[in-house]
Amino acid sequence: DQEKVYRALIEASRRKIQDMVGQQGFNRSRMEILKTLLRLRQACCHLDLLQLKDQNFKEPSGKMDLFLELLDEAMDAGHRVLVFSQFVSMLTLLRDALEKREVRYCYLDGSTKERLKEVHTFNTDRKIPVFLISLKAGGTGLNLTGADMVIHMDPWWNPAVENQATDRAYRIGQKKTVYSIKLITKGTVEEKVLAMQKRKQLVIDASLERDDEQVLDKLSWEDVQDLLSL
To answer: Which residue of 159, 169, 173, 214 sits 20 to 30 Å from the alpha carbon of 136, by its own alpha carbon?
Structure first.
């Protein structure tokens, strides 16, 4: 299901973007390109993020399936896990899945008012195995040494943001080895983003403030065509 929707989305998007760039130029098409890349990245995570009408998929997310397998293994081995996603809607789906399995968790996104309370609860209650965190909300100012595993559900344009989030578990006082896992959907824009990070450091510089729009300003039309290829 996921591959079928992704392929249909990327083929339709590629035609639309090519027509738009041909008519009004690359620079004036940047916002539409940003929206397209966002949709593709959402499709890589879970089809429910696309909010497609009248669609009920039997297998909406290979990534979710793999995450739950990894989580079972981690809990069996006594690990405690920080789970980061840039999509709050993805965290909501993860939260629903944990509740169905009766797995206790802490939660933090930009709307969380008592951030430090959630952090304190997780660090002090060893019976809570999971902390779900939005990447932007959890990137700075948190000491989460109660965890010894970090799972990134989706890649960020700027690896410095991911690294800063991972460092929440590496803070002073951590006595365990910390494992970091990044879930990447094969044959998609996620793989291409990782390749671009390695290939074009000028695109992904060390600035933690660089957001999607700023990164897109650094991409060429050739870069975008590569991201929109199958």
So the answer is: 173
